[in-house]
Amino acid sequence: MLFPTLGFALFFLVVYLMAWALKGSNEWRKIALLLASWFFYGAWDPRFVALLFASGLGNWAIGQGIVRARTPGTAKALLAIGVAGNLGILAWFKYAGFFFEQLSALLHALGASRDLPLLQVILPVGVSFFTFQAISYLVDVRKRRVPAAGLLDLLLLMSFFPHLVAGPIVRASDLLPQFRESPRLTRGAVAAALLLILWGLFKKAVIASQLAADLVDPAFFDPASRSGFDLLIGAYGYAVQIYCDFSAYSDMAIGLAALIGYRFPRNFDQPYRAASLQDFWRRWHISLSSWLRDYLYIPLGGSRRGAARTYLNLFLTMLLGGLWHGASWGFVIWGALHGGWLAIERFWTRNRPANWPATPHWLGVIVTFHIVVLGWVFFRAPDLGAAFGYLGALATTDWRNTLVTPLSLALVVGGLAIHALPVATLPALAARVRCWPAPAVGLALGALILIVDAMRPEGVAPFIYYQF
Amino acid sequence: MTTGAERGEIAEVGTPVAVAPDPVDTARPWRWATVTIATATLFLALTNAHAIQGWFDERPPGSITESLRAPIRGWSALTAQAGLDAPRAALRRRWQAAEAMRFGKERLGEAGADRP
């Protein structure tokens, strides 16, 4: 069930009415939201609901065990079991097939041919998101940052449909306190939520889908037959496509949750404005980058163990961040590129000669954007060979246009130009809209959705991050 | 680097649905939201009934879907007859014209179309 479809709209209307009809009993409200979330998740594959339930139940039991443990050693051991269990789920569903494939190739290369099991593991949608959420919950309980949750609250935390399949990774410290109270609406939050949903719909259905169909997919399908110009604009196009696709999901998720009365954290903040890669990661998929920082980089030692260890920790964190997306060498290279460049940036910040001028901001933005675009080529290409093939073809001096249309170019430029919008545009607009009469807002909303619907290509492609 | 986990992410990075408070915020917010959503839904049901029919036609056959199929087709035909689908159709034509525009001989479906 994809957000920008009529089927989801009907589902959400029912959930919205049901959630507010049950306002008088917070517990029944949460039960209804949990059942709705399982229905939503079961629309992909009912078996996934059993996995989600089992994972929630297991993490709840371990969380309770941690707070009841009589010695710190027992709590630590329970935490280790919980983290290992969650990583085990992730490893099985995401990496088992890749592992056996690589092992088989290695055995063949060594001349020790053996028939290894051919695994076709079905990847449950959103497994990376809910397992990371569960790990952060257990660590936070162990460190007493959050109290252990009741079973209903934890199941709902992990299953809540707006963030279930593609984030943001909403932490227990954000959502559990909200679950304990009966939610309330404000006109400002509703106005902001509706604007976010509309903006997300436009970014996904118009910009991302049109760019994918007209520019990015043809460029990556057969790069050897395209010119360097086509591939350069194709790579920029993918940068815009993945931003408009993923941030659209986050915007819609945040907006939908707000209409039911819950606040999610910001997940994107105009990332291509970043003047360094460190700045980029404060603006892109913020819930993942802060998760990696708090639950991986800092436990590895962060920047507290000397310069060399800091660079290594940055590199390892991003390498594992790359692998979080899935088992492929493309994601490994993508993570290594980001980790390596972050380490270089940190080295340069610490060791830049005092008499050297600082890098101009505009130059930082351009360099950072192109490092990110280079990474996206490895992220998007079906395999490593295709990525290097794309970059090789991009380096040719053939600058004819065989692919770029006025519309696709306008969407690339427009997708980058939205990064120049003032940061407070949405809250300022929401503050005005909340004062309008409801029928006027409804008519404006309906008219704008109609315009988006008229502009979108036929059909709705799944969000890119559904595969993670 | 700040550590967000102690205080929650929202405390660290904020939420996009936070708008500066105003007395109007608490003026029947649920009713305001529900009337807004209902109006938008009604507007779309009138002006985009073709999309509803298209979505419904893709549903697998069943006792409920079969009983609703005829009324939904009737509704779509009725709104089309009244010309309510004209604005969307006009917008669609303009967008398709923009899609068809070319700088030169580029053809998206064919690899390297204007190569010699």
Describe the protein in words.
The complex is a heterodimer of chains A (468) and B (116). With 468 residues, chain A is an all-alpha fold. Chain A folds into two domains: 6-183, no CATH class; 188-275 and 359-463, no CATH class. Chain A contains 19 helices and no strands. In chain A, helix 4 packs antiparallel against helix 5 (127-142), helix 12 (286-297) crosses helix 13 and helix 15 (361-380) packs across helix 16 (384-394). The longest helix of chain A is centred in the first third of the chain and has 38 residues, at 72-109. Chain A is globular. The mean pLDDT of chain A is 92. Chain B has 116 residues and is mostly helical. Chain B is 58% helix and 0% strand. Chain B contains five helices and no strands. Chain B has helices spanning 9-13, 29-47, 49-57, 63-81, 86-100. The radius of gyration of chain B is 24 Å and the shape is extended. Classes of the chains: A mainly alpha (468), B mainly alpha (116). The interface between A and B is large, with 83 and 65 residues.
